[in-house]
Amino acid sequence: ELDGITLTERAVARLRAAGIEEIVIVTGHLAGHYEALAERLGGGVRTVFNPDYARLGSGHSLAVGLAASAGEVLVLESDLVWEDRALAAMRDVEGDTVLLVSGETASGDEVWVWSDPNEPTP
To answer: Are the CB atoms for 25 and 8 separated by under 8 Å?
Structure first.
């Protein structure tokens, strides 16, 4: 929570401000909390439930979310804080698959991404 607003509510508000109208929240643990939140937020926010969240984890949640979506998809993790410029940067890049990464953060749980130094990056 930041300034009394949950990270999920913050993300929904920022996505809406960027013109994204359909927002799918994949649930598992605490599904009822997110279902109530989606109902309260209304206007294009809906949930889909991953019944195997405890066994198959977030990768399967991604598959469940993708199956419930149509067209172009933007995937965000609900426990990450991001700036509006990150969303703008992703929307401004042409390509079928776009990945936004940050530098090292010293958080201790970084995900490492390898890129080909011979390939251009925007």
So the answer is: yes
